Amino acid sequence: MKKTLSILIIALIFSCACKTKGANGKSGKDGESAKPKITQAAIKASMDYLASDELNGRATGSKGIEKAAVFIENYLKTNNIKPYFESYRDSFKVNDLDGYNIVGMVEGNDPKLKNEFIILGGHYDHIGTSKIVEGDSIANGANDDASGTIAAMEFGKYFAKTKTNKRSILITLYDAEEVGLKGSAHLAARLKAKNINAYTMINFEMIGVPRAENEYMAYMSGFERSNFAKTLNGYAGEDVIGFFPKAKDFRLFMRSDNYPFFKELNIPAHAISTFDFTNFDYYHHVDDEADKMDYEHMVSFIEKMIPALEGMMNAPTKEVILKDE
Q1: I need a surface site. Which of 27, 81, 100, 198 has the fewest CB within 10 A?
Q2: What's the predicted TM-score (pTM) here?
Q3: What are phi and psi of 220, to 5 degrees?
Q4: CATH architecture type of domain 35-314
Q5: Is the bond leading into 144 cis (omega within 30 degrees of zero)?
């Protein structure tokens, strides 16, 4: 009787395993691995630290931004995102201050296309302190740009787990944006000297708050300089990224970390944002805090961008191209 019972238990376990695994041994329907979830809890945990008073506004050269750098390095390491250089840090000087970009890589899975790189990034520095409001002087920089930094980190974590990218990905978090794009300029020049085969660059800049319902979810700076938005929307299967007329008036294309990559590498390089100067009152303000962020919106934005990025990462040819202005 015991032997018969043991056989039945083994058969039941085997049956369950067969139902949850496909022919290739991977879990999920038709052998596909279950895709990792983008969660509000994970995004909020990162935001609560990066935009905390402990980091004192993450000014370049400060103790606060050093803590942010260590946090990002640990995040990349924990999620199996390898350093692109000898370490995660790309070091540079801003006068007598030390600056550090943090650079990780998710290698592509295609023998040829993995030699082409998609660069995703955002700046993790902020202005430190600002005008005192009700006794608070710390400009925490939740939307600007902990939100974009976290989006890039989440994309890195996602693709490091799924390994669905044929092209390789650089996850690049910049220091010293607030003092003149110094970090991104240093990294872009270093990658050019390394003769990197870069395909495109996306800079995530202030994606923590939603736009009005009648607007595109996000907009792209330098919209007319390439077919980037149209192509990404095609991959996404919906219009996620649109045109923002004021972007050109405000010269946004040249004011954020995408611009040095455009100049140095001559590739399609744009900033994507959901902040349009009407939907958030706390730009460079002490109230740019973690509790002001819309985490449901951030999850939705990241989820909608994933198929758009996958399309670009896996297209057999470089379909995103620069246009003549």
Answers
A1: 27
A2: 0.90
A3: -120, 125
A4: 3-Layer(aba) Sandwich (3.40)
A5: no
Residue 311 neighbours by CB distance under 10 Å: 18
| 118 has a pLDDT exceeding 80 | yes
Domain ranges, ordered by start, for the chain = 1-31, 35-314
Q: Residue 41, Cα to own-chain centre: how many angstroms?
A: 17
CA proximity to 142, closest of 279, 295, 296, 292? 292
Average pLDDT, the chain: 91
SS3 190: helix
Strand partners, 273: 219
Distance between CA atoms of residues 289 and 292, nearest Å: 6
pLDDT tens sequence across 46-101: 999 999 999 999 999 999 999 999 999 999 999 999 999 999 999 999 999 999 99
Sign of CA dihedral 152, 154, 156, 159: negative
Question: Helices 147-162 and 40-50: crossing angle, nearest 10°?
Answer: 130
Please state, in angstroms and as integers, the Cα–Cα distance from residue 233 to each residue in 31, 158, 206, 218, 282, following that order. 28, 20, 20, 11, 30
Dihedral angle of Cα 214, 319, 190, 251, to the nearest 10 degrees = -30
Count of CA atoms in the C-beta half-sphere (13 A) of 37? 4
Q: What is the DSSP string of 37-76?
A: PP-HHHHHHHHHHHTSGGGTT--TTSHHHHHHHHHHHHHH
Percentage of the residues of the chain whose pLDDT score is greater than 70: 90
Q: What is the DSSP string of 32-43?
A: PPPPPPP-HHHH
